[in-house]
Amino acid sequence: MNLRAFVSRFGYLIGLIAVIAIFAVLTGAPERYLSPHNLRVIFAQTVTVAISAIGMTMIVVSGGIDLSVGSTIALSGVVTAVGLRDGWSPMLAVMMGLVTGAIVGVVNALSITRLKVIPFIATLGMLGAARGAAKWMGDEKTVDIPATWVNEIAVTVPIVPWLVFAPGVWIAAILAVVTAVVLRRTVFGRHLFAVGSNEAAARSCGISPERMKMWIYGIAGVFFGLSGVAQMSRLRQGDPTVAIGTELDVIAAVVIGGASLSGGEGSIGGAMVGALIMAFLRNGSQQMGWPTYVQETMIGVIIVLAVAVDRVRARARAQG
Amino acid sequence: MTNATQAVLTLEGIAKSFGPTRALDGVDLALRPGEVHALVGENGAGKSTLMNVIAGALRPDAGRVLLDGKPVSLGNASDARNAGIALIHQELSLFPHLTVAENILMGFETARAGWLDAEANRARAMRVMERFSHPAIAPNRRVGDLPVAAQQIVEICRALAGKTRVLLMDEPTSSLERKDVQRLFELITSLRQEGLAVVYISHFLEEIRTICDRFTVLRDGKSVGGGLVADNTDDAIVSLMVGRKVDELFPSRAGRSPGKVVLSVDKLSCPPMVQEVSLQLRAGQVLGIAGIVGSGRTETVRALMGLLPSKGAVSIAEQPAATTGFLPARRQSQGLGYLSEDRKREGLALSMSIADNMSLSNFGSLARAGFVDLQRQADSARSFIGSLSVRTAGPAQRVGALSGGNQQKVALARLLQQDAAVLLLDEPTRGVDIGSKVHLYQAIDDATRRGKAVLVISSYLPELFGLCDQLAVMCRGRLSETRPTEQWTPESVMAVATGAAADKGNAA
Fold first, then answer.
1. Domain spans of chain A?
2. In what order do the strands lie in the sheet with B36-40?
3. I need a labelling partner for A260 at 20 to 30 A (CA). Which of A29, B152, B284, B488 fits?
4. Model-level pTM?
5. Bigger pLDDT: A206 or A8?
C-alpha cells in the first residue's frame, strides 16, 4: 500500500491521533491526559455513542437515517429499569431492553417500506413517539433500580481488575469488530451496501430492499437498545429524559468516520474513530477548563471539516 | 408460422396499464434460440415496459409468458434471473460505490451459510470479464470511478454472469464509443452462435441492419408487424413504427434564404477542449457541427453561452463589442438560446410543469409587475404543444411524466418561447424516437424560415446532412472550415472527425 492509499484509507485515524497529540501538548501534562484513569473515563463515556454508531453505520450505509436514537435509548433504559425494579431477573430485563430497541427499529422500517415515508420523517416521528412512551413507562419520573450486575456494565473502573476497562467498552469493541466483518464478508453486508448505493439496481438484481430495511433497522434497533441499557447502567436509574440529542452525536461520529448520508459509503472502524475523536475533544476541553461552548463550536467545525476533506479526497480519486 | 426451431421465449397478448394509460395492449413475440431480435418503435410505444415485464420487474395485467413452451410466472427480478433472462438497462443500473466484481455478481454471489467465498467469486467475475476484455476495467476498481462506456460494459458483463439464455438489451450502445460498439457486436455474434436469444432495442436502423435477424415493431403498446430485417427497407420499418408513410424524414431545405451574419466567432479558445474556433452563422440558416464525442463540440457552444470561461472574439447580431467572458444571463439577453445535450440534468426542470418549463427562459414576456399571468402562460404553452405535437394531457402536466421525445419538444419550445435569434442545439434529437424527430426537424426548419440562425451539434450524420445548409467538423478542439453541405460526404466528414485527414500515415 502506497502512502496516498494509506492516507485515504486511514485518514480519520490520523485525525484522532492529531486530536490526542494536540491536547496532550496543550494540557501540558500528557501523562495525566493519557493516564489509565483518564482513558477509562473517556472510553466509559463513549460506550453509549459507540454502540449506537455501529447500528447507525448500517442504516446510513444503506441510504437511510435514524433520528429516534436518543429516544430509543431512553425508552430501552426505562423498560430495563422497570423490569429490574419489578424483580425480573437481570438477564430478562436486559433482553427486554434490547427487544424494545428492535421493535422501535422494525416500526421505523415499516413506516419507511409500507407507508413510504422517507426515513428522515419516519424516524423524526419516532423521536417524539418513543420519548413519549419512555415517559409513560416511567410515569414521568426516573426509575430507581436495585443493585445487580447490570449496574457494573458501564462503570469507569471495573470490579474485575484484569478487565482494565468497563465491560461495556469490551462489548462495544467486540460488536464493532463482528459487525465490520459481517458488512465486509457476508452476502447480507454486500446487499446492504448495494441497497444504499442504488436501490433500483438492487431490486433488479433480485434483492428486496424492503426486506433488507426491516433487518437493518431491526438490528440497528438492538444496538440502540443496548446503548440504552449501558446508559441506564451508568446512571444507575432509568431516566425517560436522558439522551436528548444523542442521535446527532451518533450521526456525527458516523459521518466523521467517512460515511455518506446519500448511502453506499461508510465503515464501522471510521464511526468508532469518529466517536473517539469527539470524546477525546470533550475530555481535553474539560481538562483545559474551557467552557462548554468552546467544545460545541469545535465539534461543529470538525464535523464540517471532516466531510469537506472527504469530498476533496473523493474528487482526487475520481480524477486519478 | 411453422419453424423447425422451437421458441425459447414466447409472449402472447401481453397487456399492462398504468392507471388510465395502456402501456401494453396485446403484444405477441416469439424468440428463437440463436437469433438477435430487434424490438423497434417510437418512444412511448411500450418497449421498455415490455422489457420490464419479461425481466420480471412488472407483472402483466393479461397475457402469457411461455418459456420453452411452458407458461411461467415471473413475479420478481430473481424469478426472471433464475429462468435465465437478463436485462441490460438503458439507464445504467449499477452500484457506483462497489467494485466491478461486486457489481457483476450482485444478487447471486457464491456463499456458504451467508459468508462470501471471496476466491470463488473473484474467479467467476474474471471468467465473465474475459468475454469482454476492456483495458479500463479491473475487477477491484470502484465502478463509480470508471468512464461511462466502461460502466456500460460492466452492466453487460453482469447480464452474462448467470446462466443466461435470453438477453434483453435496451439501447446498449447509447453511451458506447465506436470501437466498443464494434466489440459489443462481436460479443453478440458469439452469443448468438452459442444459442442465446437476444432482444435488441435501438433507435438506430443502421445498428439493427448490422446485428439483427428479425424485428418486431411496437406501436401504441401493440405489436403491429415484423419480419426478417433483410426483407424490409428502412422506409418500410419506419412506416410501421410511425403508422404512416414517411416520404421524407427531413423537411426540404429548398427555399431557405440566408440573411445577415448574426453570430461571428473569431478564435474562441477554452483550453484544452476548444482551440481557436472560428465560425459565422447567418440568419435563416442551419449550420451543423460534426465530430466524435469529446472533440470539443459541446464545450464550444458552452463557451459561446458563457457557461465555460473562454478567450477570443464573439460578436452577436450587429453589436460591435466583440467580447467573451459574459455570463449566460447576458448571452441570453443578447439573443442566444442554448439547448443542452443533457436533457434531464440541464435541459429541463423535470418536476415542474410543461408550461413552466417552456417559459423558464422568458418569464418576463408573460408577467405583469412581477406576477406571471397564468392564463397567458397556459395559452402560450398550448400553442407550442400544438405546433410541436407534444403528446400530453395539458400544459399543467409534469415534464418528468412525458416520454423522451416529448420532453425534448418541450425543451426546444423553451428556446422558441424565448424567441432567441440564435439557437444553439446540442444533440437535439438524442434518445428520441423517429416520430418525435420528424416533429423536431420540422420545428427547426420552421424557426429557420422565420429568420432564426441555428447551430446544430449531432453525432448522427444523416441528421446533419438532412437538416443543415452548412457543415463544419470538429476534431481535437479544432474546427474545420465551414462548407456547404453538398460539398461534404459522410466519408469526408468522418475522415476529418477522426483526424485521418490531418495526419495520414499516422492513422494506420
1. 44-244
2. B85-88, B166-170, B197-201, B36-40, B214-219, B222-228
3. B152
4. 0.78
5. A206
